[in-house]
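ok so i was messing around last nite and threw this chain in just to see what happens. nothing serious, just curious
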Amino acid sequence: MVTKKTAVKKPIKKAVRKTASRKKQTPMRSFHVHKDPLPFRSFKITRQTAYWSVLLLFIMITQLWILRIQIDIANLTTALLVQ
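result:
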């Protein structure tokens, strides 16, 4: 005789809601202007200023080099067309 085993059913647990502890809520304030720690027109040399300066110098030198190459090509083209 063959017997069938049935799975044991576990009781279903109901979700328990935890009540949130009531913290003192800060009162809602209207928008206000935040005071910056440094004035807008102040100038302070930082490490980031040095990085941007080096990047600007590199870009300017590269653009001048490209401009010189373009002028050389234009002069060469003009010289070839004249002959």
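not much to say yet. Residues 47 and 78 are 47 Å apart (CA to CA).
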